[in-house]
Structures are given as C-alpha cells and as structure tokens.
Amino acid sequence: MIRCIRHIAGFTLLLLVALLVNAARVQLFEAETYTGNPANRRTFVERYGQPRGAVLVAGRPVTGSRDSGGRLRFERTYTDGPLYAPVTGYSSQVYGTSLIERAEDGILSGTDERLTAFPWWDDLTRAHRAGGSVATTIRPEMQRAAFHGLGRRKGAVVAIEPRTGRILALASTPSYDPNELSGNGTSVGAAWRRLNDDTDRPMLNRALRETYPPGSAFKVVTAAAALDNGTVTDIDASTDAPDPYRLPGTGIRLRNTASGCAHATLKDAFRVSCNTVFARLGTAVGLRGMVDTAQKFGFNDRRLRIPSAVAPSNFDTRMTPAQVALSAIGQYNTTATPLQMAMVAAAVANNGALTPPRLVDRVTDADGNPLFAVRHRRARQAMGPATARRLQEMMVDVVEHGSGRQAAIKGVTVGGKTGTAQHGVHNQGTPYAWFISWARAKNRAQPAVAVAVVVEDAAADRADISGGGSAAPIARAVMRAGLR
Amino acid sequence: MTATATATPARPADTPPPLPLCTQRRGIELALLVAAVLISVCGYLAVGLAKTHAVPSGAAAYGAGLGGLALLAHLAIRFRAPYADPLLLPIAVLLNGLGLVVIFRLDLETPGDAAAPTQLIWSTVGVALFTAVVLLLRDHRVLQRYAYVCAALALLLMVTPILFPAVNGAKIWIRIAGFSIQPGEFAKVLITVFFAAYLAGNRGALAHTGRTLGFLRLPTGRLLGPIVTIWLLSVAVLVLERDLGTSLLFFGVFVALLYVATGRTGWVAVGLLLAGGGAAAVGALEPHVHSRVEDWLHPFAGIAAGEGPGQLAQSLFAFANGGMFGTGLGQGHAYLIGFAMKSDFILATFGEELGLAGLTALFLLYALLVARGYRAALGLHDPFGSLLALGLATLPAIQVFVIAGGVMGLIPLTGMAMPFLAQGGSSVVTNWIIIALLLRLSDRARAPRPEVSELPVPAVRAESVPPEAGR
C-alpha cells in the first residue's frame, strides 16, 4: 500500500512538473508571440495608459492630453488643431496616427528604447517610460500667414529655410481639427466618416501627399538643365525657338499666352513664361539630361522622409521627344508636391545646394533632455553654383518686371516663378495656380526662406487664376513673416 | 510550545520502546498563520494602492476577519487535534486569503458585481464547518460506517440541480434566495469517503479473488458491482449535467484509490484506456466538449475568423503579459478576460499580476498541501484512513491540474474551480471540509501510537483496525 501511495504521489508530482513547464512556456518562451498578437488589447491599453508626449512649435506644445477616465485612458488634445493638423497629424484611439504623430510615435508614446538608460532594467520592473517631446522646425507666424493666406481656398504652402532644409511652414487647406478624432467615443467615428466623405478631402495633406502638374513653375528645372548641360550658355542670347513650336514627330503646334516669344532670350522667355522656348529647350537637353536634373532636385525619389513619408514627385524616364517637350513645361506626366517645388526654389536660393527638408529639430525625453541628435542629411548639389546664380537673376527679374510682381517686398531681394498648370481632359479642369519663390534680406548673404504655394480653386473664375494673381500674394505674406 | 513529547506515565519494562518523538508544532502553525494573514493583508493593500492610490478602507476589517477565522481554526486544532500537521491550516488560510485578494481586485473592474464580501461570508461558513468537523469528528473511522449513506447523499446532491435551470450551459447549480450552491462540490467529498470505505473493506478480496484475464485479475461482479455502479451513476449524472471537470475528478480519484487498495497496476492501465477512449468519444460526439477541444487545439481561431480572441486566447494573453514577475497586483488588465474571470479564469489574473514567480509559488503551495495529505496517508495504519487521506489529497491535486492546465492551454478546458482561490461558496466550504478531514487524519497519523492500556476505545473498533494492517 505504501508503495502504491508513493506511486500516486509520484504521478501527482509529474502533473505539477507539467503545469510548471507549461506555465514557463506561456509566460516566458511564447510570451512575445502572445503579446504581439494584434488581437491582444493590452498593447493599446498600455499605450494610452499615460499622457502622450508633446509636439512643440517654437518651444510651445501644440498638443495636450485629456484624462478620459476610460479604458484607453488618455486622449490627445490639440491647440490650434486645424492650423497644425498638416504638421502634427492626428492620434486617435480608434484610427491610429498620422504624420509626426506616426513618424515619432515611439518617442511620443514612450515605447522608444532610447528613452531609457537601462532598457533591460525597465523591462524587468515594467517601468512605464513617460513620452518624450518632439520639437518641430515650424515657425508659428509663418504657419499662420500661410494658413490665413490660403483662407477658404483649396491649396497648400510649404516654406523652407534653404541652407538647412528646416521646414518653416507647412499648410494645407481645407484643414480639419484632429481633436475630433481623439478618443474613442461615437463622435469620433462620426467625425471620421464625415471627414472621409467630404469631397474637399480635408484630411489630405496637400503639401506632402498630393502631387500637381507644376506647369510653368517647372521651367526653373528646365532652365537649370539647359544651363548645366551647356545647351544655353548666355541667358541674354537669343534662342532659336519659333512661335508656334511644332512638337517633334507630331503635328501639334504649341503656342504661348504671352507675346514676344519667338527667338526670345532665355531670360525674357523665363520672365514672360514662354512655353515654346522651354519646350524646345527640353528636347534640346534631351530625355537623359532632363531626367538627370529633375532627379537631382528630388523628383522620382520614393524614399524622402521629413520624417513623415512624402509622395514622390514624378518626371517620366521613358518619353518621346514630344513628351519631353511637354514635360519640360511642367505638363504631360510631370507632377510635383508643393514640398518638391519648395525644394526647387530653395536649391536655387542656396546657390544650387539642396539640403533635404526636415520637420523635426530635436527629440527630448519627458524632462526635456535631448535624446540624440537628429540626423541632418547633408546638402547635395542640384546644379552648378554658376547656374544657380543665373537662375537667381532670372527669378528676381520675374518678381521685378514679370508675372510675379505681387510677391515683391520692399527692401528685400525676392526671386520667383509663376505657374498656371492645366489639367483634366482637354485641359478643361480648373488650372492650378503655382508660385515658387525665395527671399533674401538685402544685407544678408544667406537667403531667409524659400516658398512654394499652390492654389486649386474651383470656385474662382478661370481667368483670375494665375500663379501671379492667386499664389504670389500668399508667398509674399509667408516670406514677410519669415523675414521678421 | 513546540516539541513536547507525550508525557507518558511510567511503563512496565516489557512494553516496546516508545515511538519516535511525536511533536505537536502548534507554535509553528500559529507563526505560519500570522505570516499567511500578513501576506494576504499586504496583497489587499497592494491592490488598493495600485488601483486607487489609497489604503483600501476595509483593510483593517479584512485583516481582522481573516485573522479571526485563522485563530478560530487554530484554537479548534489545539483543542481537539494537537498532533495535526502544522502546514495544512496555514496553507489553506493563505490560499483562501489570496483568493479573497484577487476577487477583491477583480471586483474593482466590475463595479456592479462585488463578489469578495460574499466570498468572505462563505469562507466564514467554511471555517465554521471546519471547526465543527475538527471538534465533533473525534475519529475518522466513524465515517467508514456511513459509506452507503454518503454514496446515497452524494447521488441525491448531484441529481438535485437537474430540477433547476441551467446556468451557462451546465446544470450544476441550485439557486436559493440569491445564493447559488453547487451540490456537486460537496458530493466529491462524500463519494471519496464511499470509495475509501468500500475499497478498504474489500481490498483483500478485490486483490486476490476472481478470474485472471491476461495480465489482469478481474474481481467477481459481486465485489466490484456496487462501487462501479455508483461510480458510473455519478459520472452519468455529471455528463448529463455537462460537468465534465468533476466527472474527470471522480474518475481520477476512483482509479487512484482502486490502484492503492489492490496494488494492481493493471487497474491503472484499464483506467487510462477507459479514460482515453471515453474522452475521445465524448470529445468527438458531444458538441459542447467538441468545441472545447477545438478551442484548445486552435485558441486563436476566433481571431482568424474575425470574431476577436476567444476566452482561452484572452487567458493566454493575460499569462503572457505577466511574464516572469507579473505586472503587480491591480496593474494588469483583468477585465479583458471577461466572462468567468472571478471563477474559472481567476488564475489568469493571478498569472498576469504575479507572473511566473507568483504562479510557481501558488502551484507549490498546492503541491505542499497535497504532499502533506499523502504524508498523512503514509502515516496512517488503518486502510480506510490511508485511502481517505489519499483520496482527499488527490482531489485538489487533480482539480488544480485540470483547471490550471485548462486555462493555460495544456489540456482542453473543463469548468472547475481553483481550490480556495476561485469565487464560489460551495467550493470554498467543501475545501475547508477537506482540510478539516485531512487535519483529523494527520492528527491520527502523527499522534503517538496509543498503547492498549491507555486506549479508551471500544474493543470492537480496535479489532477492526489491527496494527500494521495490510503493510
């Protein structure tokens, strides 16, 4: 009997061992699989269990936290939500995050390993790391000028500090209030559906995620290609472009809205925006030369991050000469984000050197200690310095004597280029008004700011839409704010 | 207070030497009890501090209540079972206390449903019954006489819930005046008593008579008949009520006792074969069980089907979140477990908030409890006592394995209560009775062997228990 009792005891011991081994399997060896399961709500609950770190503009937070007392406890709040929505994005319990909220989520939510000195100790003690803050490069007065300049029209503004690539303003209209998407009440779902069903697409970040045909504003790139390739050596010498210009290999005759384009000089053609001259220059430079220069400015770059992803701007790499001619005046398949066109203006202003744009200045922990240096990418030469200086001269000419007069600021050197891009079937869509420019205080060597403005205004009379009329005043207001 | 050898009067020179010194160790028991109550109160405070950042208002009352119960039980033991095993009561108090802490902690997640006060009332009832058993049951062998009464009572208790409506698919509850009672819980003690008594009475015949069939010697039907009938009846009732955990429990205890009583390995083989075949058949045919088996095999099937995580998946998530040291009491996300989080799935909260370390400690507490039961079984000299101690200790052993294995994905889930830990009045009361009986048995096992001259035991009883019987 004693032997049998011992056997039973031994069997019970086996059961105990099985339980312990299984417990170790579930809690240690397979724990990561279970924790990482997307259906495991614990991740979300812990994520919202503490206030989220702040997004700073000029040292002041534009975001806050509200304790909802619910399961997903802390909800995001935004001050000046519509104004900064294209910068911050939203952070929603239901719909996730976007833009900086998404790109810097690890820092803001406190999950980033870099927030702690001893990660293994925190893992052991399950210490919750408080969310760090993200300082943006935005200057509030410029952001306001851009936002109010656009007003009720659809469009976008990007302003860049040419030398550093810091994005000073990033506006997109119509905007939305990310406060509406915070939390997880029924109103959040309603707001989400309303914003998504809106035909004006207020949640679309037009500055980063929408590409437009750049129209005549692209002539800056074509001129740079022509000068860098030696196709044009003297901007004051006559080009051999006839008016109208027959696209090579086709019977299509390209005309101008401006007069005096036949055999105009590059500088004159740039000032009055002659399609014929630039279309012909494009074919003269050739596909390879045009693609090369466009890509140096950042076209066709799928990897651009600021740190949010930016929609790639397009310049086709396989085209017939006629398509190259149309692409050279910013039509055909050529499309660009407002950020891309701001980069073009910035590269010209910065003597040909293009610094990749960025929106984040500094990342700190919850106490404000800098965590690590934000990796500043080095400038690359988009064109030769001599080419850049001649382009600056031509762009100043546009503002002083050409279509960009509304951008002029007294006592400041301003260079610009207008664009009125046609689109739609048979060009029946409302044209987009472009203006790209840069400004430099007279007593400074460095340009202060480069700006790109696009206005897509279906309500406006077609005749009123032109880069000089609609977009240039906005660019002027932003540049003035930047020079202050 | 410790190490008091029995002060026996002077013996005649020809009597055998005294047995090894038997110690009472009641002081150790008291010290362990104080520790158990302190640990529970600390857990209670930890929950309050974590959830509301304040000392919970009922802390003093909770500590006093638990301490009072422990003291009452301790005094009863001092008075009537001075040689009882000093570990049993502290372990029971600690498990009961921890259960109250975790239930209190889960109450904070479910504002409409406070189970801890009810559980405390049931614990009080349990300790009262414990005290009654310790005080009134002077000799466990009395129970042997009531074997068939126990069997009849157990069957009656198990049949009663059929008359009451089903709760969550199982007809195992009786609802009276807002209290729900699970009579099957009491039945398991009664059935164990019956098994032990019947097998103790017939073990010689069971082991040595009957025909040989291959390696197995089958006892005659007349011998095996009654016990198999009652066992089959109870299992049939349980299957009818869909209480599969308890039927498994009865089966396990039956096989274990049969094996120990007859000493024949063949019974274990037959038992395992029967269990395997029965489980496979029920798992394939019965839809309720079949779904449990499916859940066990594919705990994340619900997620893949877009229905969200099932309960087993939620339980595994909770355990995984606990990791090595747990999130700390009150700092897990127990409400995600949802249904039955205070009863069947209470272990998931325990594992999440106290981690593998806490869970191991808990399993070891149960193991210690079971081991002390087996220790008593080894020390007893009457077959009935041995078998009863073995059966009573095996009950929590199988129960812990079945429920812990179920909620952790080791075996298919069968609804059962974690002894002492889970919410459930009948369960707590029954477990206290089991502890009382084990204490009584261990007291007898550890007490100095009474000498015939000192024994005021009726002659007939002494005759039925020859010393060293069956060894």
TrEMBL record, chain A:
Signal peptide as annotated in the record: 1-23
Gene3D superfamilies attached here? DD-peptidase/beta-lactamase superfamily (3.40.710.10), Penicillin-binding protein 2a (Domain 2) (3.90.1310.10)
Q: Which residues form the Penicillin binding protein A dimerisation domain?
A: 52-134
Q: Name one Pfam family in it.
A: Transpeptidase
Q: Does the keyword Signal belong to this entry?
A: yes
Q: Which UniProt keywords apply?
A: Signal
> Where do the Penicillin-binding protein transpeptidase domain residues begin and end?
155-479
Entry protein name? Penicillin-binding protein 2
Which organism is the protein's source? Streptomyces halobius
UniProtKB/TrEMBL annotation, chain B:
- Keywords assigned: Cell shape, Membrane, Transmembrane, Transmembrane helix
Indicate the transmembrane segments per the record: 30-47, 59-77, 89-108, 120-137, 146-166, 172-200, 221-238, 244-260, 267-285, 354-374, 386-411, 417-439
InterPro entries recorded for this chain?
FtsW/RodA (IPR001182)
Q: Look up and give the membrane topology term.
A: Multi-pass membrane protein
Q: Which Pfam families match?
A: FTSW_RODA_SPOVE
Q: Which residues form a coiled coil?
A: none
Q: Does the keyword Transmembrane apply?
A: yes
Q: Where in the cell is it found?
A: Membrane
User: Can you name this protein?
Assistant: FtsW/RodA/SpoVE family cell cycle protein
